[in-house]
Amino acid sequence: MTTTSPTLALLRRQAAGTLARLEGSAPAPVARALVAGGAVLTIASAFLSWTWTADFPGDLTVSGYPGGLQWLTVATGLLLLLQTLAAYDLPVLRALAPTGHTAPLRRLALAAFATTWFTLAAIAIELGGLANLTTGGFIAGLAVLPALYGALALPADHRPAKAPAATSPWIERLWVTLITAAGLLLFTYGIDTSYGELFEGYLIAAGFSAAAYLKSGLFERGAALLQRQRPFAMTAAFVAAALFPLTQNNDHDANVGVNILIFATVALGLNIVVGLTGLLDLGYVAFLGVGAYTAALVSGSPFSPFHNAQVPFWAAALIGAGVSIVFGVLIGAPTLRLRGDYLAIVTIGFGEIFHITVQNLDGTSGPKITNGPNGIPQIPDISIFGLNLGTAHQLGSITIGRFANYFFLMLIVTLIVVAVFSRAGNSRIGRAWIAIREDETAAEAMGINGFRTKLTAFALGAALAGLAGTVSAHVTYNVVPDPYVFAGSTPPNSAFLLAAVVLGGMGTVSGPLLGASLLYLIPEKLSFLQNYQLLAFGVALILLMRFRPEGIIANRRRKLEFHADDADAVEIPEQGSGPDNVNLSKAGA
Amino acid sequence: MHTLPQQLANGLFLGSTYGLIAIGYTMVYGIVQLINFAHGEIFMTGGFGALTVYLVLPHGTSLWLALPLMLIGGALTSVLIALGAERFAYRPLRNAPRLAPLIAAIGLSLALQQAVHNLYPKATSPRAFPQLAAGPWHLAGIRIQSGDLFTVLAAPICMIILALFVQRSRTGRAMQATAQDPDTAQLMGIDTNKIIAAAFGIGALFAAVAAVCYGLRYGEVDYSMGFQAGLKAFTAAVLGGIGNIYGAMLGGLVLGLAEALATAYISNVPGMQQLGGGSWADVWAFVLLILVLLLRPQGLLGERVADRA
Amino acid sequence: MTDVTTTTVTSTAAPLLDVRGVTMRFGGLTAVNNVDLTVGEGEIIGLIGPNGAGKTTFFNCLTGLYVPTEGTVKYRDKVLPPKPHLVTQAGIARTFQNIRLFANMTVLENVLVGRHSRTKEGLISALVRGPGYRRAEADSRAKAMDLLEFTGLAGKADHLARNLPYGEQRKLEIARALASEPGLLLLDEPTAGMNPQETRAAEELVFAIRDRGIAILVIEHDMRFIFNLCDRTAVLVQGQKIVEGDRETVQNDERVITAYLGEPLESVPGASDSTADDSTADDNDTADGAADSTENDE
């Protein structure tokens, strides 16, 4: 584990001491009652008005029903109430906390507390002073405290989860559907947030709640359930994703959706290179660019030197992926024989060379191929089976706009990439990749041709990025050199892609998807950060590596739980390459 | 102006700057096997530190007087930031898998860049750097500007000081020991933490000198100057043999020469008419890197190190 | 166990492993100096010597990790290309002195990786997942589980390798090496850090491996282990092979006694300090050492 500084250790001890004092300071029934009562009060307080001017977005001036951020308080309050009722050992709700009640209750109380106080603080800060809060606001701030205190006063009761009762596969599928639907709603809400404060509140509420369900053991149960019903779960997820654009009233959110999908797909491709095989590719976005430019060149755009070619999309996609593979092999062949750190530099270099080259091929500094800084605009829309993706279509009463069309296309590409990742990761070659990542010398001693295996991973990653690039060229009408840099303010760029993979959790399927979504949405939604975005991003990376290098979706092996009690499991000395905190196991979470 | 001697001279001036920055990369990599991505930004902050000193000095101070102070100011800035980075960003990750400190370094590089961009007054566009009021001189058909003269004096002096330090001083020898075998070095009583910090500090020191060279040569400092220069400098370090400080300077000179010559003469090669000129300089630098890695991966002065199974 | 005798295989057939004149120089340091060694089919050969004598370096020369400065290594009468993965494909497998498992893979996955050289399903096959692929995977799994049963790890197939206790990690390394169906297995200090029961179990395992027809070359410091197991033992000191033969030959050799053979059997720290200049002390040590080994033997 990372070494802790003395100050940090001191702070931790003091925090632990305070918590220890709070714990048990009230008898358990009293504490529980406090939490329950506090939850009800919190929910009620959301119905009051919290401020008396409409300057704060969301209209929190009305008494009688919640508005804007107040809904988040209601939501967290309801979850808290539900969890407290579970603590009363009511028959059905009991299942909400397989590993003990206190831990999730504490976090849900924190969720309610943090969300409410965040809203109040936001009001005060933005409007300039506590005077902007009405009595209702103060009541809300106070209402949440007994719940928090009560939760902290509860005795710790962590226990190992009992195996859940076996249920029929159809009930399991029902649960999977519900989970998927909930996921879709959550995601849609996040995308739909129209102002920054709401998005921030949403992140806070969602973050603490997720932590709560993680601690309660529900996540483990859910993950096991999804594993058992894997094919059904994947279908449900695909259906949910397909439904997403249909839930939107305008095409803007579908635009966001497509971009997230492109970003996520490319991140998944990078996950093969970095996450599975451990190759430090820092110029990955160049492969996306190769795909995009290739598609642009064969698309028939009047600005392309090959504008007489009219290539159907599926051919363009294949060509794009193929050209990417060629570049991947060109870059990989000389460098993959060397130490991994050299690959990092060479890939950055390649990224830079790509960017410079496409900028220079404008007829002046070089032959006129890519039209230099102006790029290749007027890329025609894709036409599949006579259906033009550029025009809106009607499906009953629902309008499917341009971006929605491309969303569906990209969804299919994403599905292909997910399938490739899953299948490749869980096979002989996937094991070879992971073995190389873990210990290349030992892997070679097992008969693995390190160079050829690494090159395969590298080329495959390039191909997938190229494929995603071909779609992105059509989505954005034009292709310019600007996005294909190492670091910049808008995703995708190599640093962001790498961060998405690392943040989400390397080696897993859902990790890069989640990481890409977060990293795309956060700059998009939190526009107040505008100029300080990259600064915040840089600092965030440092902190992430310091405190949680395994990312959000660390692939915890369920079997690890069995070892907590295993008397034989002795902690083994470091094996040099054995990372403690980067938990990467089988591909495909 | 594009005569061969002039181009060679240009290459030397450019290369010396690369070499000074490359020393920082090579020293850190030699001891902790970390590519300090943020080193380019440390170079950049050194430049801004020097600029700041100049700006706070009374108006009209002669640059000859101010220059030493600027060097000190720049060095202080870069060294402090480098030591801070080592202590708070890298040291906690020393036992983490390779990717973690690399990503932290990327984050730090971004953060430093943006911090200067956002927080330093008027740094959103390049800021003018004072120029020495002397020269240009002409020597054997080569035009030497004041900035070039400074560079051509500073680089060798720095190398001599560094060589003496590494070979004669206790810390220097301790550094060599730590680079070869950190565990045994520790057993011999060497405080590896201090040695590593010293490596970061010395690298930062020379980067600051390089930044002043850069500022004097180009007349400006810019928040983004670290990225490109850093990449080139690491190329130079690899070229010369990573971990070898003389290799770093040699690599820098070779890279500078290659860039200058390619920029001037590539267009003469049949078929590559349009690939000359400044806009392609960086491309040729990386092509050189790939060639070196293909043909002599240990670099010009490097040695093959056997891997203990 | 005590009735198993170590037989010396005298075969007139070509040796399985034929090492001639292998020398390894690193700059000015000669780590291995002109070593000859042969291993016949089904033999168990020991390689002993003080720390730093070059034993692991020698192994690395055999497996292609290092390219010998001089000399040839022939396996089944063919010179092996100096690439580790080709050496494994040819039929030599190894374990490492410092355990090098794939820490974040499960026990079963570790062994499956060992089967890499005996399977050939590539990326396309993995993506298409035709019947051929499924059959190959099932077959690999079956063979891997068989090896886990053989080494007694079948119950922990889904545990992460790094969570295994030390002794089981060593067994896993062996299982993983066996997965490539080698003709020759190189074991590098397989009992380091083991207690007597574990060492005993390791001995049985090595005999069982030999019974499967695999020859074994083992580096060890545990004298009892070595002499119980090995048909022949070679002694490496400062990179040179100073003697090779059966137990008596080695134990009574002057040079060996002088250089090294004072190590107590249970690795009691400080109990033996074999130095060349203090021959009296050495003689006493050797006497003790020899006496110990005769006492506790058989």
Main attributes of the structure:
heterotrimer, A: 589 residues, mainly alpha, ABC transporter involved in vitamin B12 uptake, BtuC, 2 domains, two-stranded antiparallel ribbon, two-stranded antiparallel sheet, 21 helices, 4 strands, 62% helix, 2% strand, disordered C terminus, B: 309 residues, 11 helices, 70% helix, globular
Describe the 3D structure.
- The complex is a heterotrimer of chains A (589), B (309) and C (298).
- Chain A is mostly helical and 589 residues long.
- Chain A has 2 domains: 18-239, no CATH class; 251-521, ABC transporter involved in vitamin B12 uptake, BtuC (Orthogonal Bundle).
- Helices cover 62% and strands 2% of the residues of chain A.
- Chain A is built from 21 helices and 4 strands.
- Chain A has helices at residues 6-22, 28-45, 70-87, 102-127, 135-153, 169-192, 196-215, 218-228, 230-243, 251-276, 285-298, 313-335, 340-360, 402-425, 428-438, 440-445, 450-475, 494-504, 510-525, 533-547, 559-563, and strands at 383-384, 387-388, 393-395, 398-400.
- Chain A is globular and about 75 Å long.
- The N and C termini of chain B lie far apart (55 Å).
- Chain B has a two-stranded antiparallel ribbon with strand order 1-4.
- Chain B has 309 residues and is mainly alpha-helical.
- Chain B has helices at residues 4-32, 39-56, 63-90, 99-119, 146-168, 170-180, 182-187, 192-218, 225-240, 245-265, 281-295; strands spanning 127-128, 137-139, 142-144, 220-221.
- In chain B, helix 1 runs parallel beside helix 5 (146-168) and helix 2 packs across helix 9.
- Chain B has a domain at 12-223.
- In chain C, the strands form 2 sheets. In chain C, strands 6-7-8-3-9-10 form a 6-stranded mixed sheet, sandwiched between helices. In chain C, strands 2-1-4-5 form a 4-stranded antiparallel sheet, with helices on one face.
- Mean pLDDT of chain C is 83; it is low at 1-9 and 273-298.
- In chain C, strand 1 and strand 2 form a beta hairpin.
- By secondary structure, chain C is an alpha/beta fold.
- Chain C folds into 2 domains: 13-91 and 182-253, 3-Layer(aba) Sandwich (Rossmann fold); 92-181, 3-Layer(aba) Sandwich (Rossmann fold), CATH 3.40.50.300.
- In chain C, helix 3 runs parallel beside helix 6 (166-178) and helix 5 packs across helix 6.
- Chains A and B meet through helix 13, helix 18 and helix 20 of A and helix 4, helix 9 and helix 11 of B.
